[in-house]
């Protein structure tokens, strides 16, 4: 029990040391004390990063849903497991207790079994953020089917690629979805996708927007009547520790999306343990992560991590700007949210709006604020800290990846003193290393390099679905015996890590390595600037020069543009140095972003270098129309 909940910094260092000196003993103790197993493991860990092969808790048997649901029934049966907050604030929130969740998952599991889904089969879930999404995920886990959730903002092409890559036999979707004031025809997207997916035999359709849709006889079935008829209990399938739990696609810098495969026991242990500590979760808390379950953040920290701890986890169907920019804070007040976990892109969007939207609401329930998905710039950090946390709620800047399954570098709130833009210290059990270009580890502090992990952790992805070689090449071939993250990082004087951005975003100007994030931070601090992205473009003398795409705040739009350019460069010169000055500054009304909020720099790089003949795949962009505008006005 003692190691499960870290309470002060000295304890962090003690437990950390223990976890790296003897990882097997450490994780064995956590696994033994906090989970229910059908059969104990024979071996805690075996690994070889050269193959690569990693196995945790080999020989153990379990079902993750027994850990996330069944075991809570005697003590938390009437506690809210999932608190569903609909898109429309006028629609009532739904409290789903652990007992109700158990019944709903069992019924869904029985429907899947009845449709012929067996252990090991792949099921694609393409649903909006409604309770059926979490229920479907858990129902797959209940019967040992491998879920592949595809974010319901992806196009039919992207959906078809993912369905075919993992040979899904069944798709769970809905008649449509609400997104702010809009409705989206999800079933139409599925129908189009399935024209190219001969392997899909069955489509289950949840009713959400009550629209008139086409149902293909034999293939398509309304979900609710099947659930109504299904038996409300189900004996969980017994899974081996290393049986796949799910596939989740993530885009690579090149080529097709990679289906990252996560397995059962290690993923469960690590997501539960990180959830407990990174959010300092307590029994009475109401925890809210605003991500979509279509991303890893939703898998690990809306569904599995919170439920494994018997928590109340909020599922929000809506968007931050509907019906107005106060929506997040209204929900925090209404449900007395204690932990709030979101992305810097959302914070920056809200920070552009009037402060009244925040100040109107009582946010005093908040204890911990989280950030994930990209580096959080200093201005956004302070806005979040001052206006949402009222300087009373520590911000946990959590660095991790789809591939890592769980949070890897993060403060522990009320334990680790925070510093803006720093993800701070490695989580318990995580052994980071900074590497130079020649493959040598850079020791000591006040250094920067490429971020690698030296030792396995329980929730790491085990392979890429159907392509183990690509898994090895992408993550284990750059540095011997290390997992390479693709990110750059610096380690400061006290050993805190700051993620400087993807290594492919590093720009070498006159022989100096410049990370995009610190330069963008500096630009964003200019009072007229809302957001920026910089890329490199070829330069005769310097090798590369910097090109900045900058979105102005409303207040900046009337300013003289050349004066603004000078001021921005002056600011960069002061904060980073003249080497980081921008050669070109283009003011734009938006930046091309993926649906998870990441700027697609590949496109900006092409435009900056005047090479727009082949912009590559823009189908995953949230706002493809912006590309033309930026091209038309390029410098
Ligand atoms: C969880 C998630 C992973 C990439 C990662 C890094 C960036 C995520 C970050 C962060 C700086 C943080 N990233 N969290 N960069 N600070 N706190 O986002 O997974 O969608 O796979 O993205 O996101 O570049 O390598 P995923």
From TrEMBL:
EC number(s) stated in the UniProt entry for this protein: 6.2.1.1
Keyword check for Ligase: yes
UniProt record, GO biological process: acetyl-CoA biosynthetic process from acetate
Acetyl-coenzyme A synthetase N-terminal domain boundaries: 12-68
Entry keyword set: Acetylation, ATP-binding, Ligase, Nucleotide-binding
Boundaries of every AMP-dependent synthetase/ligase domain copy: 72-462
Keyword presence, Nucleus: no
Source organism, top-level taxon: Bacteria
Molecular function as annotated in GO: acetate-CoA ligase activity; AMP binding; ATP binding
Residues in AMP-binding enzyme C-terminal domain copies: 519-598
InterPro entries: Ac_CoA_lig, ACAS_N, AMP-bd_C, AMP-bd_C_sf, AMP-binding_CS, AMP-dep_synth/lig_dom, ANL_N_sf
Family to which the UniProt record says this protein belongs: Belongs to the ATP-dependent AMP-binding enzyme family.
Protein known as: Acetate--CoA ligase
Native source organism of the sequence: Maribacter aurantiacus
Gene that this sequence comes from: acs
């Amino acid at each position: 029990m003692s190691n499960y909940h870290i309470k002060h910094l000295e304890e962090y260092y003690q437990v950390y040391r223990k976890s790296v000196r003897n990882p097997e003993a450490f994780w064995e103790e956590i696994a033994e004390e906090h989970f229910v197993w059908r059969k104990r493991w024979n071996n805690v860990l075996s690994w070889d990063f050269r193959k690569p092969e990693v196995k945790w808790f080999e020989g153990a048997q379990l079902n993750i849903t027994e850990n996330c649901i069944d075991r809570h029934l005697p003590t938390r049966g009437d506690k809210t497991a999932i608190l569903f907050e609909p898109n429309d604030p006028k629609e009532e929130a739904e409290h789903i207790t652990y007992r109700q969740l158990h019944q709903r998952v069992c019924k869904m599991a029985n429907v899947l079994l009845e449709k012929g889904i067996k252990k090991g089969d792949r099921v694609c879930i393409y649903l909006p953020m409604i309770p059926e999404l979490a229920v479907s995920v858990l129902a797959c886990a209940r019967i040992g089917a491998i879920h592949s959730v595809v974010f319901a903002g992806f196009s039919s092409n992207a959906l078809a690629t993912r369905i075919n890559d993992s040979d899904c036999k069944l798709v769970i979707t809905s008649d449509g979805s609400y997104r702010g004031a809009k409705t989206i025809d999800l079933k139409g997207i599925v129908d189009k996708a399935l024209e190219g997916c001969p392997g899909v035999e069955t489509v289950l359709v949840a009713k959400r927007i009550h629209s008139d849709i086409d149902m293909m006889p034999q293939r398509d079935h309304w979900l609710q009547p099947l659930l109504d008829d299904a038996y409300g209990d189900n004996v969980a399938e017994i899974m081996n520790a290393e049986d796949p739990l799910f596939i989740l696609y993530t885009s690579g810098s090149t080529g097709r999306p990679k289906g990252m495969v996560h397995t059962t026991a290690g993923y469960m242990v690590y997501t539960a343990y990180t959830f407990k500590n990174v959010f300092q979760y307590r029994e009475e808390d109401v925890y809210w992560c605003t991500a979509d379950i279509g991303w890893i953040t939703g898998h690990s920290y809306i569904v599995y991590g919170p439920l494994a701890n018997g928590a109340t986890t909020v599922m929000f169907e809506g968007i931050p700007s509907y019906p107005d920019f106060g929506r997040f804070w209204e929900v925090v007040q209404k449900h007395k949210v204690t932990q709030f976990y979101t992305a810097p892109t959302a914070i920056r969007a809200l920070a552009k709006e009037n402060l009244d939207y925040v100040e109107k609401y009582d946010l005093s329930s908040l204890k911990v604020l989280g950030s994930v998905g990209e580096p959080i710039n200093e201005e956004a950090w302070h806005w979040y800290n001052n206006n949402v946390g009222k300087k009373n709620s520590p911000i946990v800047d959590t660095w991790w990846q789809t591939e890592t399954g769980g949070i890897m570098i993060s403060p522990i709130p009320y334990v680790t003193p925070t510093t803006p833009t720093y993800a701070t210290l490695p989580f318990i059990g995580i052994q980071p290393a900074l590497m130079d270009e020649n493959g040598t580890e850079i020791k000591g502090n006040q250094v920067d390099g490429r971020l690698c992990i030296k030792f396995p952790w329980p929730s790491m992805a085990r392979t890429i679905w159907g392509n183990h070689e690509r898994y090895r090449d992408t993550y284990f071939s750059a540095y011997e015996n290390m997992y390479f993250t693709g990110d750059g990082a610096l380690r400061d004087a006290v050993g805190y890590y700051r993620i400087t951005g993807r290594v492919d975003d590093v720009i070498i100007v006159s022989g100096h390595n410049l990370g995009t994030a610190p330069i963008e931070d500096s630009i964003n601090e200019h009072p007229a600037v809302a957001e920026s992205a910089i890329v490199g473009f070829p330069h005769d003398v310097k090798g590369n020069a910097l090109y900045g795409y900058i979105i102005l705040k409303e207040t900046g739009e009337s300013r003289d543009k050349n004066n603004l350019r000078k001021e921005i460069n002056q600011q960069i010169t002061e904060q980073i140095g003249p080497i980081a000055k921008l050669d070109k500054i283009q003011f734009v009304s938006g930046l091309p972003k993926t649906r998870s909020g990441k700027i697609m720099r590949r496109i900006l790089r092409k435009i900056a270098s005047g090479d727009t003949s082949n912009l590559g795949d823009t189908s995953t962009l949230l706002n493809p129309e912006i590309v033309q505008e930026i091209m038309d006005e390029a410098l």
